[in-house]
Amino acid sequence: MPENGKRFLYLALVTLLICGCSPFRPDNRDLSKIDLPKTYSLYSENGTTSDEWWKNFGSSDLDILVKEALEKNFDIRKAWARLKQANAAAVQAGADKLPSLNGNADYSYRKTGSENSASKKITETENHELGLTAAYEFDFWGRVEAQAKAGELNAFASREDVNAAAMTVAAEVVSRWIEIQTRREEIKILLKQVETNRTYLDLLELRFRNSLATALDVFQQREQVARIKAKIPPIEARERTLINELALLLGRPAGTLKVAEEKLPELPPKPESGIPSKLLAYRPDVRAAGIRVRSSDWDVAEARANRLPSFTISANSAFIGEQLATLFNGWAIGLAASITGPIFDGGYRSAEVDKSRAVVQERLEDYKSVVYTALNEVENAMINETWQEKYITATEDQLKAARNNFNEAGSRYLQGLEDYLPVLSGLSSVQDLELNLAGDRGDLLLYRVELYRSLGGGWTERLKNPLPETGKKAESAKDKK
Q1: What is the Cα–Cα distance from 5 to 335, expressed in whole angstroms?
Q2: What is the rounded distance in angstroms from the CA atom of residue 248 to the CA atom of residue 253?
Q3: N or C: which end of the chain has fewer CB within 10 A?
Q4: What pTM was computed for the model?
């Protein structure tokens, strides 16, 4: 081997030994050290564990709706598409860790001539070239590693975005389903109330004909019938719009979804709330925010390494011939090494470091905000559910008292001791409380859904990408068919 070749090989080996040094590698950041309370204000760790929590409502139709939404919801599918983009970007970011190899082919033709009084001379020159060019950057300062790590972490964060979208969509589907069944329960109550009020109206009209009731009593009862009937259309409209909202969550056009009518489910047993620090592991939005902090740390490392010179070696080989038949008779090999570094850039690279560090600070604040928001959501869901249960109990007691009042007013009216107004007032109070209680019970279930969502979980890790394959995998699958 020529002396220059030995020196080059020696330099390459020494470089390989020291290029593993990454002086700007970020320290491992412990994001678990964040100020959180040791326990929640209302719940202990006792409770039932639930993974696919919507199954606790005991509806097979609801299970089917959630499953369809997790496959066809537009937001989830867009999140999957963004994950594909992030994975491809991660591959691109790590491409510089390996040498590049390019092929090239070249052909040139030249014809020259001269004319004078003595002779004419024409010369034709033809050249064929076929070769390979390879290049590799030795990662002295860890720039390539930092770039690859940042890309990889961004892909991980995108996967957590998919999980977060799935959790949100599942909760929205269940919430819409509960609201639909609640509105249907309210409509059934109102129809029954219309029937009851018509019965009272018939009795009053009979008493009026027998001179036992006044025309005012009849008119007041007719108004009560109309008042109850007027409540039905807005609730029916809301039911229809809720079904359309549910259809959109399932990736269907409006007017194409039918939801089976079911009895409003009972409140499932309380879930295991655990301790607040579990949110750091159970909430995908928290995990995504933490991953992006670490990704930005690697961006700082890349920006710092970019301020230092880069060392690249390249090699090329080629076969050369004046004709295709003689192409492989001639060959050439070349080796080169280059060092490139900034001398003056107007402060661009220094500013890039400052910018990257500011991004780290921003993402740290964003991470804390996401954690505290998650804690706030859990606490609020617990508070709302606990006080809603108390409110329902108080409303049930109020309904019992209203029924007693109504019965006593009716008895005194039949005995001629009171006019009809106390009866009408008691009837209105009872029927309003019956309707309100149905809505309150639906709200209690909605608070439970919010609690399930805010506590997070690991069921989203089992989700599979519903989008069609692209690229090499798609071509391979097509070939197999």
Answers
A1: 9
A2: 6
A3: C
A4: 0.85
Closest listed residue to residue 429, CA positions, set 403, 394, 455, 450: 403
Please give the CATH architecture assigned to the domain spanning 34-110+145-309+362-480: Up-down Bundle (1.20)
Cα separations in angstroms, 274 against 44, 189, 268:
7, 39, 17
User: Which tokens belong to 184?
Assistant: 């249907």
Write down the residue that tokens 């661009």 correspond to: 348
* Domain locations along the chain: 34-110+145-309+362-480
Do residues 153 and 298 make contact, with C-beta atoms less than 8 angstroms apart? yes
Strands 120-138 and 100-115: antiparallel
As beta bridge partners, residue 315 has 134, 335
Q: How far apart are CA 45 and CA 41, in angstroms?
A: 12
CA distance 117 to 258: 98
Residue 94: how many other CB atoms lie within 10 Å: 17
Cα–Cα distances in Å, from 60 out to 54, 55, 64, 226, 357? Answer: 10, 8, 6, 38, 51
Which two tokens mark 133?
A: 């060019």
Q: What is the pLDDT along the chain (481 residues), one digit of tens a residue?
A: 445 455 444 444 444 444 455 687 888 888 888 888 888 887 655 666 668 999 999 999 999 999 999 999 999 999 999 999 999 989 988 888 888 778 777 777 777 776 665 666 777 777 767 778 888 887 778 888 888 999 999 999 999 999 999 999 999 999 999 999 999 999 999 999 999 999 999 999 999 999 899 999 999 999 999 999 999 999 999 999 999 999 999 999 999 999 999 999 999 988 888 888 888 888 999 999 999 999 999 999 888 888 888 888 888 877 676 555 555 665 667 777 777 778 887 888 889 889 999 999 999 999 999 999 999 999 999 999 999 999 999 999 999 999 999 999 999 988 888 899 999 999 999 999 999 999 999 999 999 999 999 999 889 899 999 988 776 555 454 454 4
Q: Which two tokens stand for residue 44?
A: 């202990």
